[in-house]
Design goal:
Shape: elongated
Number of domains: 2
CATH topology of the largest domain: ABC transporter transmembrane region fold
Strand order of the largest sheet: 6-7-8-3-9-10
Distance between the termini: 67 Å
CATH architecture of the largest domain: Up-down Bundle
CATH class of the largest domain: Mainly Alpha
Radius of gyration: 37 Å
Largest sheet: 6 strands, mixed
Number of helices: 21
Strand content: 5-15%
Number of strands: 10
Structural class: alpha/beta
Helix content: 55-70%
Length: 611
């Protein structure tokens, strides 16, 4: 098994190692009683079929260590025949049957215990791995997920984690249960007849080669299936999100064709993978029959010709040989599960071990207050190759309202993302009160800021919990006061359960204006010293815009504000207006100053005035 898998997975098993130990102990006893279950049939067969039970034999004498096998074999036979002579065949038969029942009961009892303890281990590992995956998703920066499909991430957190969990269960069986069953059985077989035992291993290299050939391909097939499953989930997510657009543009047939292509790929790759996996059973079954036939042929010679093996021992030996084949087949089948698990673990740890370029520095400080100003110093930034922001230099004084305007793609929203540290600058720096934001913990930095975006991002929860997202310990009175300031209280009270109404997925039970006012109420409740508003009214109708703009004006009172504006009429009272063009600042000043220059800002105002 891959060393990376062992090391990475061990930290998840470690908290539950007591269950692993108990599982191993239970499997040891299972393997022991599994072997004994076949041995107890030897005296049973002797009672039923042996003609020697009426004979009287002498108690064997010790003749040295080199004859230890014969001595103890004859000693056991002596005591067993003596018991039959004293108590009779019927009582001996009853005793053997009780012994068989007891051993089989203990075998299955320890099998249950092994599965019982494994349940806590596998479900605990599943929970912890999913928790770590989710925490990692929350901690990774926004760019990490902009390069990936949502469905791919969902697939890694669900089906891939399940595959790894199943592989973990199989691993414990492979390294403890099945090998011990084989070991105990082989030791017993060697004691019974070492020549016959060698026949069991004649086909082992052949079986191992066949299994390895099949297993090597399974990992590759599993990769393809998991990839197509990711595409499957991604397309479902995209379809549900954009259903209105799909219907509005009559694109149902296009998406249906796309979906059927993916399901056809899943169908094909799954068939190949499962059929290859299914090949394990008939292949190992056929090899097992060859082994049994060989044992019967050679063992028959020992029983009939050489007379070196009794019929009862020979029948028990065949049963023991089958007891080797069963766990061997389980190991063969398990190897495929592990190969699938290996394919999944690579996908999981691509996320779990992903480097976070935005993680806090070891000596990062917690900044509790915003005191003087925010300064952008020679800031450059690029998403890929070309810079989308170039040489930005400006400051935002405490209490100022600074507006960013410009055409779409000029870099306005990118500035907000950099200020919130969703991304890091490539050159230059952003400082708050003289401290680079990269030297401040992300949590304390974002505690200083409130965010209202163009897209009203709400969650499938109650109105109350959506407003209190940034301040979960807020009182009901504070929540209501925030809603009133945001002009949201009245429509909330008209909802079926008021503040306890669930607003649905992404708040889709509300109108655009209502959703935006809840976003503003959330920011008001948080009460940060710096507000960042990214085109908060651009997607609203006139009536909703008026209500939202009124709420925004209340929100911006007595605090520092960075406003990305689409409708320029809303930022005429800004202390500073920064005009962006292709990632650069081309104009800066108040509304009156910029209008007097009759430059780009003046032209934008004129265009909107005649629009």
């Amino acid at each position: 098994m891959d060393i990376r898998f062992k090391k990475s997975f061990y930290k998840y098993v470690k908290p539950y190692k007591r269950f692993a130990v108990l599982n191993i102990i239970s499997n040891i006893f299972y393997a022991l009683f599994s072997t004994l279950a076949f041995l107890v049939f030897i005296p049973l067969l002797k009672v039923l079929f042996s003609e020697d039970i009426h004979k009287t034999i002498a108690k064997p004498t010790w003749q040295g260590i080199e004859h230890i096998k014969e001595y103890y074999g004859q000693l056991l036979n002596y005591y067993w025949l003596d018991y039959i002579h004293v108590h009779g065949q019927k009582q001996a038969l009853t005793m053997v049957i009780v012994l068989v029942i007891a051993i089989v009961f203990l075998k299955n009892l320890f099998n249950y215990f092994a599965l019982f303890f494994m349940t806590f281990l596998r479900n605990g590992v599943l929970r912890d791995m999913r928790n770590d995956m989710y925490d990692k998703v929350l901690s990774l920066p926004v760019p990490f997920f902009s390069e990936r499909k949502k469905g791919d991430v969902i697939a890694r957190m669900t089906s891939d984690v399940n595959e790894v969990q199943n592989a973990a269960l199989i691993v414990l069986e492979i390294i403890v249960r099945e090998p011990l069953t084989i070991l105990f059985t082989i030791i017993t077989m060697l004691v019974m007849n070492y020549k016959l035992t060698l026949f069991v291993f004649v086909f082992t290299p052949v079986a191992g080669y066949i299994i390895s050939v099949i297993g090597k391909r399974l990992k590759k097939d599993s990769h393809l299936v998991q990839k197509e499953n990711s595409n499957f989930l991604s397309l479902i997510e995209e379809t549900l999100t954009g259903l209105k657009i799909i219907k509005g543009f009559n694109a149902e047939s296009y998406f249906s064709k796309k979906f059927k292509t993916i399901t056809q790929n899943i169908y094909h790759y799954s068939n190949v993978m499962i059929n290859r996996q299914n090949l394990a059973h008939p292949a190992s079954e056929f090899l097992g029959i060859l082994v049994i036939v060989s044992i019967v042929w050679y063992g028959g010679q020992l029983v009939l010709n050489e007379k070196s093996l009794s019929p009862a021992v020979f029948i028990a030996f065949i049963a023991l040989a089958y007891n080797v084949l069963t766990p061997a087949k389980a190991i063969a089948k398990a190897s495929y599960t592990i190969q699938k698990g290996m394919a999944s673990v690579e996908r999981i740890f691509n996320i779990l071990e992903a480097e976070n370029p935005l993680k806090d520095k070891p000596d990062a400080i917690d900044k509790e207050q915003f005191e003087r100003e925010i300064v952008f110093e020679r800031v450059y930034f690029k998403y890929e190759d070309a810079y989308v922001l170039k040489n930005l230099n400006f400051s935002i004084k405490k209490g100022e309202m600074v507006a960013l305007v410009g055409q779409s793609g000029s870099g306005k929203s990118t500035i907000a993302n950099l200020l919130m540290r969703f991304y890091d600058v490539n050159k230059g720096g952003i400082k708050i009160d003289g401290v680079d934001i990269r030297d401040i913990t992300k949590k304390s930095l974002r505690n200083l800021m409130g965010l209202v975006t163009q897209d009203s991002i709400l969650f499938n929860d109650t109105v109350r919990n959506n407003i209190a997202l940034g301040k979960p310990d807020a009182s009901m009175e504070d929540i209501i006061q925030a809603a009133k300031i945001a002009n949201a209280h009245d429509f909330i009270m008209e909802l079926p359960k008021g503040y306890d109404t669930n607003i649905g997925d992404s708040g889709n039970r509300l109108s655009g204006g209502q959703k935006q006012r809840l976003n503003i109420a959330r920011a008001i409740l948080k009460n940060p010293p710096v507000m960042v508003m990214d085109e908060a009214t651009s997607a609203l109708d006139t009536e909703s815009e008026k209500l939202v703009q009124d709420a925004l004006d209340k929100l911006m009172q007595n605090r520092t504000s960075v406003v990305i504006a689409h409708r320029l009429s809303t930022i005429k009272n800004a202390d500073k207006i920064i005009v962006m063009h292709r990632g650069e600042i081309v104009e800066m000043g108040s509304h009156q100053e910029l209008m007097g220059r009759e430059g780009i800002y003046h032209n934008l105002i004129m265009l909107q005035s005649f629009a």
